[in-house]
Amino acid sequence: MSKQTKLSRIISTIILGIILVIGGVISCKHSHTIEGQGEGDTVAASEFEPQGAEKKLSINLNSITSVRFPKYKLSKATPIIPDSISMAADEETVSSGNYAATLILDTIPNKDFYDRVDAAAQHDTCWSINKFAYTYLHRDKQGGMYKIVFSKGGTQIFVTHVNRELAKIATTPGKEKGKKGKKAKR
Q1: 118 with 169: CB under 8 angstroms?
Q2: Can you tell me the mean pLDDT for 169-185?
Q3: In the list 126, 156, 165, 175, which could disulfide-bond 138, CB 3.0-4.6 Å?
Q4: How far apart are CA 103 and CA 140, in angstroms?
């Protein structure tokens, strides 16, 4: 009897093993057919493209500084990616609001333009003027920070903008709107 009991245990174990293997194969095939029913992508490839890559950066110096600038065009714009933020460089674009841009004036500004800037600087504490260097530091309504720099007689204007989150991190020396002197009048 003992041989017969051992043999029946072995046979029942083999049968149970075969049933488990068949059940496992059937469940894997069943789940594979449910997940793989659509032969196409589950997420469109356009979802993985950099966001805002096709949006062109528009900088209106008149609305930022309240000074009418001569005609200019955007030469170069690059996103600012600080070391303190963990982000893939290819995912960051200028449309995020953190950028450094170079604008090129169509002509060298005349004396009237520099007179307008000097007059604005007397009423707006955001302006800082040295002999040949003009700097404008200004917080926008959303809490971001603009920095506009150009030199007298030059045709390049350098514009930097960081959004509110980076403006808190960045410490920019110089005058900021409302911090020194009287409040700016516009």
Answers
A1: no
A2: 47
A3: 126
A4: 20
